[in-house]
Amino acid sequence: MPSLLCAHVPWLRLAEHRSFILEERINPEVYLSADALDAMHWSAMSDFAAELAANQLSCTIHAPFMDLNPGSVDVAVRKVTAQRVEQTLRAAELLGARSVVFHPGYSRLTYGSVQDAWINSSIEFWSGYLQLVRNIGCRVALENIFEEEPSTLRRVLDGISDPVVGHCFDSGHFNMFGRVSLENWFAELGSFVIEAHLHDNHGHADEHLPVGDGQIDFGQVTGLLKRYAPQAVWTLEAHSRERLVRSLRAIQQYLEGE
Questions:
Q1: Which among 164, 182, 165, 183 is positioned nearest to 174, based on CA atoms?
Q2: Which of 63, 87, 119, 173 has its C-alpha lying 20 to 30 A from 145's C-alpha?
Q3: How far is residue 150's CA from residue 166's CA, in Å, rounded to a whole number?
Q4: What average pLDDT is seen over the chain?
């Protein structure tokens, strides 16, 4: 059993989903885009945190990611990334978020020839936030995006060597880009998993289909999560209410199964 079941909710669309979230008792993973952060009224976030607490709900956060890269070899890119990370961690403190998911920024096509530089920059970047993350009381989870195998994420996590920074396993991204078996991936990174993003596809596009509508074996995925990371948060990344309802229905068999 996961420690928490969440569902993806963009902050800029919270108004249209707020009643549904509260009435259906859904723990949100709040997605904060750069536009959302730039337009943020922090008092509104405090108000939402109070609503969640009053309804005994928890949350996680998905940080902005477009054009950001904590391991960039360009110091100016790292500076902008740091600004967004600090804004996101402020939101995590206000919301009392369990975890915050960040994209690591690695692509073999871009950084394959300077992999060591990217890894060292990533380790230095995240190591600078360890005390702040501890003070807030959340954890940081680095999500697999274009990673074909687990070695770069493993080297970053080993280099940081602090339990407040771990891994977010994304089933859809793994199905698109993974070039190793699920068993191999979890053997390397399973013990680092803080959160899992569960959504389906057919291996060619990031479709964000409901669980069971694509080709992913969620029996295997959830079985590995239960074995390696029984306390991980599971987040349904459905990009419409209709898909979320179907994913909530489909995930029940895996919540209840051994």
A1: 182
A2: 87
A3: 13
A4: 97
